[in-house]
Amino acid sequence: MASVTPPGLAYEVEHDLANHRFQARVKGHLALLDYQIKRKRMIITHTEVPEPIAGRGVAGELTKVALRYAREQKFKVVPACAYAEAFLQRHEEYDDLLVR
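Above: the chain sequence. Below: its structure as tokens.
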């Protein structure tokens, strides 16, 4: 399981490649982003941040790390959950990853 420590944050984002998940444990709570890979496409299926740690940018950080991974692997991205779709609408720097 690979991990990435976001700059200035007190948690690591881990990539659980076997379970197709990015995750971060913050103050004892597990936040996650699940995905599937189909035909060179990363389909982001679910993001979840428990209420006690909501509003701290954790979902955004999970999504950024997932998108960085997609770019490195030359995957296109399909946002199949509401959070990922909204995130990608707000961040045009990832437009090149979207399936058109």
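Helices lie at 58-73, 82-90.
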